[in-house]
Amino acid sequence: MRNYFFILALLAVLPFVSSCDGTEPNPNPGTSVNGKTVIVYISANNSLSTYAEGNFADMLEGYMPPSKANGEHLLVFFHNRTTPPTLYELTRDGSGNPLKEEVHVFDMSSSSGDEDVSSSAEAVNTVLSYVKNNYESDHYGLILWSHSTGWLPEHYYTEGPPAGYPNSEDAPVEPTSPMDIYGDAVVKMAVDDGVQPTSFGQDEGTLEEIDIKELAEAIPMHLDFLIFDSCLMGCVEVAYQFRNIADVFCASPTEVLANGFPYTHIIEPLFTSAEGVKEVADLYFHYYADSEVPGAAATVVVVDCSKLEPLAEACGKIFSENRYKVPELDMSDIQPYFRSNKHWFYDLGAYIKALEPSSSLLDEFRQAMREAVVYKAATETFLSIQITDFSGLSSYIQNPEEPYLDDYYRTLDWNKATQMIAD
Length: 423
Prior knowledge:
It is a single chain. The chain has one domain. Helix 1 crosses helix 6, helix 2 packs parallel to helix 4 and helix 6 runs antiparallel to helix 7. The strands form three sheets. A nine-stranded mixed sheet has the order 4-3-2-1-5-6-7-8-10, with helices on both faces. The protein has 423 residues and is an alpha/beta fold. The protein is built from twelve helices and 13 strands. About 14% of the residues have low confidence. The longest helix is centred in the C-terminal third of the chain and has 15 residues. This is Clostripain. Keywords: Signal.
């Protein structure tokens, strides 16, 4: 899920550059044995379709590798309501003009044959395998762009548990008012248009979505970085699920305003800086934090995935000794990252502190967090959420009234490592 945020000057949707349209497919995709390939995977066959066009247009205004660059490739997979699933390569010619070259159009027909589906593990694997086979590089980076709902299982965000579980007939989500508290700042939510927010991605018509475990398995190459430009993915469960896939992980523990990251500015550091992801996170944060437009807000975290095992070990010790305290926690005292009654995302640091572990275990946890979380930033508020205790990562806190979530949560790598919910 992403929130829709109208800012006429700041967040205007730019038209595509006409000189870049109508290009012929590239019969000979570039192959290099070194360098870096950055992929932006935009799955926008949904209510974000127009915003996707705006972000794509923003990329054409920003950094692109020179046409004859040695081993640098900026690839954009784009699928929205009006564009079939297509891979493009963005470059600049010798005069600095942007070039948008159509590389490949994918057949991603649904089982019914009448819809293209890009929000499936198979689709992600198909696109990334094509990139791996045709753009051999020493370094890959991936930005995933769509709706999302963190670690939650498929359909849970809007439908609740399946038949056979308590409360299965009562959807757990109360629709948020389209006007919200910011007047016309939030114009509609992702539950509009007959589509559903998902773990990652969504396609209209088919309601196809991707479980995060399946998404991790679908990525065929190791990544220097994985950035989610989508809602609620800055949770420890998601970061840990991708710990062996990516060196660096970047996401937001809250929702993300519909215009997402400032693509005119964020691509260059991903190619040119050793601290590129941290620079991207900082650019994203200040794009909203420095805005004078009411309601502009952002949260973001960057994680060193090599440091997640010590964090899991520290949390596992705390859960082992303090798990029995969870039913007695005063949830109103723990920093939330959700609105309405979508109570599945709390601040990890605040959660651990509320368990009141021994000072030695708390010190071990805090040291692990300092090493794992290499950048974090949050505005004082995000829509209706007051942010006063920000560790960077969110976490689920077990709710005995939701046994389906308990069963699903046990399948996540984070729970296997920490036993937050005991087997």
